[in-house]
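> @MW can you paste both from yesterday?
MW: sure, first one:
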Amino acid sequence: MFTLADGVRLHVSVTGPTDAPVTVVLSHGWCQDRRTWRQQIAALGEMGHKAPRVIAYDTRGHGRSSATHLRSATLAQLGDDMAEVIRRYAPAGPVVLAGHSMGGMTIMEYAHRHPAEFTDRVKGLLLVSTTAEGHTHTRYGLPDQLAALMRAGETLGAGLLARSGAWRPHRVMLPALRPALRWLLFGDECADEAMTLTMGGLGRAPLRSIGGFRESIGAQLRLDTLAGLDLPAAVLVGSRDRLTPPACAESIAAALPGAELTVVPGAGHMLPLERPAEVSAALVTLVRRAARQAKKDRRPVKPTIGQPHCRKAA
C-alpha cells in the first residue's frame, strides 16, 4: 500500500527488473481495477532481458485501494495521484504511460497539471478507449434523442450515488445487469474471463466512486493539452465502442502530434480484455522505442573531427 498526501491508500503492484531501462505505468478505467491490464503485464514480462519495470495500481476508491472523499472524486485529483505514484515508484528514467478509459483521462490531467514533469519523464503514451472531450461524442449506441435522455438520467443517478457513501449494495444486482453491461461494454466478442473481471471491478467500486467521478469525466476538455505534447503515442479504439466511440479517438489522434490511430473492427469499450493482443502489441512497441531512445541518449557524444576534446584554461 502507498499512502497519498491526503491519507488515501493505493494498492500498487510492481513487477519486472529493478534496473529496467524503462518503466511502464498502467492506469485503469472507471469502476474497474488494475486487473484490466493483466494480459498486457504478462506480455511485457515476456520481453525477456528487455522487459520493463511495470507499475499497476488501483485508483482511489477502486479495487483494493481505500475509499475517496467525495470532494476528491475528480480527474484533477487522479492526475495528482499519478504524479505521486511516479515520484515514489519511478523516481528516475524514462516512463511509458498507458491509460484505459478514465485512466487515459487521468494521464491527460497529469500532463495538464504537471507539464514540466510530464515532458521530462514521459517518453511514450498509449491511450485506449478514452476521450479528451468529456461526453461530447457519447451516444451509447442510441439515436441522439434517446442518448440525451439516457445521459440526463445517468447524470441525475450519478449525483444520488455520489452521496450514498462507500458501501456496495449493487453487488447483489450485478447478475441481473450482466446482459446490459455485456451490450454496453463489449463488441462482437466477450470471453467469460473478460466479463467476470469487468463485473468484479464494478462490484468492488463503492457507490461514491460510481457516482462521484461522473461529473468530472463528463466535463473534461483536454485537446489543447494533447496538442502541446511531443512524444511517440498510440491511440486505440473499438469500432463498436458505445462509451468512447471512434470519434473520441479520432479527435485525440488529430490533436496529438505523431499519434498512430488504430480502430479495432468489431471491438467494444473493454479493449485490454476484449482484444488483448492488439493492445499488448501497441504497448510493447512503445516500450521498445523508449528503450532504444534511452540507450541512444546514454551514448557519449563523439567530438567533431578536427575539433579539440577540450579547451585549456587561459
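MW: second:
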Amino acid sequence: MYGKAFAPEYQGALTSLSVNSSLVDVLAAGTEQLAAAERAGRRGEAARSGLAVAEAHRRLGQVGDADRAWKASYRAARAAGDTAAMAWALWSGGTLARQRGAFALARRLLGLAAELGERGGDIVVRGYSLAGLAETGRIQGDYEAVGRLHEQLLAEARRRGEARHTVWALEGIAQMHRNTGSYDTAYAMFEEAAGIAARADDRRGHAWALRGLADIVSVRDGDTERALALLSEAEESCTAMNLSSALAYNHKMRGNVCYRAGRYTEARDLYVQALAEFRAMSEPRGEALSRLGLVKSLARLGQDRTETAAELAELARDLERIGLRHARAMVARAQTELGLDSDTDTEAVR
C-alpha cells in the first residue's frame, strides 16, 4: 500500500538525497549546489537548493542560519517567478517559527504556503503546510480545532499511499489521544506508524513513533526497562542522522520515564542534558518541558518547597506567554502532585 518514504524538500539537483540522509551531508550537498546555482544565475535552482540548506540548519538546531536560508530561498524563488518554490520556502520558515515558539508567525507563514502551494499546483507543499498548521494547533493544545484537520490529512495521505505523511498524521493524532488519556488508542496508532515507517525506511518517523510507544509503555504499563529500550533504539537513528531536536526530545522522554519509575537522580541528570540541548537550539517548548521535569525531580530530591513553588509559578507564566496551553495544564498538575496548590503556597510565590 505504501511506497518507500521520500523527502520532497530535497529538490532540484538534490532529489537523489534520501529521507534518511545525514543532515550534515544534506547541508554540505545543499551548500555546494546553492553556490553553483548562484554562480550560474539559476535562481530557481538556487531557491530549491536553498530549501534543503534551510531545512538542514533547522533540524540541526542552527536557528539563525536556518532563518537566513529560508528567506534567501524565498527571495530566489520570487525572482524566478516559481510559485511552488516560494510556497516551500514559506513552509520551511513557518516550521522554523513553530520550532522557535513563534506560533502566530508560524500560522501566518504556513497559511500563505498552503495558498501558494494550491496556486502553484503543488499538492505536496499544500499538504505539508496544512499539516504544519495542524501541528501548530496541536502543540498549543487546541485539539478540538485541529483534530478534524489531522484526520483529513491522514485520509488524504492514505489515499495517496504517502508513507511519510501517513506516519506524521498518525503520530499527531496518537499524541492527542495520549494527552487526553486514551492510552490504548494512542498505542495502536503509534504502533501502526512505527510499522509503516519501518517498511517505508523512514528512520525519522520511526524514531518519533518509538518515542511515542515508549511514553505509553511507561505511563500505562509501568514497564520502565522496555520504555528505555525503545528510546535507545530511537536514539540510534537520531544520532545517525544528526537529528538534534529529536534527540533532545528523546533525552527529555528518558527523563520522564525515569521520573515515573522513581529514579529521580537519573531523571534530574537527563532533564539537565535535554534543557541544555533545547537552549542551544532556541526551542522554547522543549526547554519549558525540560524545566518542568527538572523542577519536579529536584522537588522529589528534597528541594525547598518555597523555591519549587516559585519556579513552577515562573514556568506557568512563561508558558502562558508562549501560548502552550497543554504544557500550562501540565504545570498545574505538577503543582497539585507536589502539594503546592494550597493557598499558603500560592501566597508564597505572588
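> thanks! Residues 100 and 280 are 12 Å apart (CA to CA).
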